[in-house]
């Protein structure tokens, strides 16, 4: 098994390129994968790296017959969702070694509407769909060829019925049409679970986000007209902040303060010049990453001075951009001090945050034939030493999973030396 040395540094291509294809069945308000001009006014944080990382493609997973639109890791399994409504489970132990064309997956769920997002809490799998619904599945992975049981569809029948008869529960969803506030009325694009597991957050192209209680799936709150256009991404910090990214080019900050009944709007992080497609947040919540059609990944960091002055809402400041992709950024993932980005240029890039808060591009993963739509990453506990010829080096090994519109999932391994 040979690890490939990553070419360094990663250079930015300045030529403007256009990618005119749009995701299948998506509306005009959804995030486009067309490339738009970068942000020259934002300082680049990318520097050359003196340390040499090594990476390789260890597997290509084939089993889906349509575009991969979402994936998530849970224990020893990788769960993937596709545009033809399939959810599949893959045993990660079966593709830990280098093989090709692995089809060892189990079809665990089939429903209506493309699967846009997947999150897991205990023995429950939550899936967001293009048919405006959120589905809850009971995980039964130890029974071969047994599909998961759908135990709830959100909003639940009880939620819908209880809101049916009071006019105050109705909101305008379009001209001359109203609906109860518990309903999403367009594609549900993103899901997130609160730190304590008690709440599920959902974001939609209907410009709203909602909060659900995971105990009984009741809709507790709906923030309507949260943006001026479709919401494409939502992430939560461990200290209670909610960040939403939208096709209106804005990232908005929300929080439910102690004693409040509802989330309050706290401010806008505004620098992107095109649709915001992806958000990711560091484990400690101190760094927010945003990716957009402008080909840039913007880095926002908490400013302690703003926090001390009592401006808890706008506690993030823009510190710079990560550049290297030549087309729109479609997805982001964070693993320890690594940031993974997927793009419409068919590549995945791996960035590492240094102790001086600068970033280096460690690797460029190429092999997909179409845009990268979803990413996940994990520490590879089986490898921390790299044998480079006569030298043995200590570092960390990671596995990165990429899902693409080419219907494939690729498994990559990257070894990173200690800083």
Automatic annotation (TrEMBL):
| Database matches in PROSITE patterns | WD_REPEATS_2, WD_REPEATS_REGION
Matches recorded under InterPro entries: JINGUBANG-like, WD40/YVTN_repeat-like_dom_sf, WD40_repeat_dom_sf, WD40_rpt
WD repeat residue numbers: 61-91, 181-212, 224-255, 269-301, 322-351
| Ranges of compositional bias, category Low complexity | 23-46
Q: Mind listing the UniProt keywords for this protein, alphabetically?
A: WD repeat
Highest taxon, organism lineage: Eukaryota
Work out whether the entry's keyword set contains DNA-binding: no
Q: Which residues cross the membrane?
A: none
Q: Which Pfam family is an annotated match for this chain, by its short name?
A: WD40
- What are the start and end residues of every segment in region (Disordered)? 19-46
PANTHER family (UniProt xref) = F-BOX AND WD40 DOMAIN PROTEIN (PTHR22844), F3I6.5 PROTEIN (PTHR22844:SF387)
- Would you tell me the protein name for this molecule? WD40 repeat
Q: Which classification does the entry list for the species?
A: Eukaryota, Viridiplantae, Streptophyta, Embryophyta, Tracheophyta
């Amino acid at each position: 098994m040979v690890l490939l040395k990553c070419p360094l540094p990663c250079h930015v291509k300045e030529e403007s390129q256009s990618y005119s294809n749009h995701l299948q069945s998506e509306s005009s308000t959804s995030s486009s994968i067309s490339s738009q001009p970068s942000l020259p006014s934002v300082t680049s944080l990318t520097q050359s790296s003196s340390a040499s990382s090594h990476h390789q493609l260890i597997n290509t997973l084939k089993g889906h017959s349509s575009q991969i639109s979402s994936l998530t890791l849970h224990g020893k399994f990788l769960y993937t969702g596709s545009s033809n409504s399939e959810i599949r489970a893959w045993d990660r132990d079966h593709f830990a070694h280098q093989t090709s064309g692995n089809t060892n997956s189990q079809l665990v769920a089939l429903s209506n509407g493309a699967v846009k997002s997947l999150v897991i809490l205990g023995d429950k799998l939550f899936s967001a769909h293009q048919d405006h619904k959120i589905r809850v599945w009971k995980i039964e992975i130890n029974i071969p060829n047994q599909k998961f049981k759908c135990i709830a569809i959100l909003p639940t029948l009880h939620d819908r019925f209880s809101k049916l008869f009071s006019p105050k529960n109705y909101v305008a969803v379009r001209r001359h049409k109203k609906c109860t506030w518990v309903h999403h009325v367009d594609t549900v694009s993103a899901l997130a679970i609160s730190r304590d597991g008690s709440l599920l957050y959902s974001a939609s192209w209907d410009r709203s986000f909602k909060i659900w209680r995971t105990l009984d799936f009741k809709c507790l709150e709906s923030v309507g007209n949260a943006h001026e256009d479709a919401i494409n991404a939502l992430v939560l910090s461990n200290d209670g902040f909610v960040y939403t990214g939208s096709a209106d080019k804005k990232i908005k900050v929300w929080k439910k303060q102690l004693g409040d009944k509802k989330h309050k709007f706290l401010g806008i992080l505004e620098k992107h010049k095109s649709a915001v497609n992806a958000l990711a947040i560091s484990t400690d919540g101190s760094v927010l990453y945003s990716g957009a059609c402008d080909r840039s990944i913007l880095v926002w960091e908490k400013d302690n001075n703003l926090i001390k002055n009592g401006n808890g809402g706008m506690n993030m400041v823009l510190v710079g951009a990560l550049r290297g992709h030549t087309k729109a950024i479609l997805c982001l993932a964070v693993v320890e001090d690594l940031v993974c980005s997927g793009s419409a240029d068919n590549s995945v890039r791996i960035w590492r945050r240094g102790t001086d808060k600068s970033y280096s591009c460690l690797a460029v993963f190429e092999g997909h034939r179409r845009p990268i739509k979803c990413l996940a990453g994990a520490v590879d506990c089986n490898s921390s030493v790299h044998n480079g010829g006569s030298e043995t080096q200590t570092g960390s090994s990671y596995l990165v999973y990429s899902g693409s519109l080419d219907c494939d999932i690729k498994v990559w391994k990257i070894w990173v030396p200690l800083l």
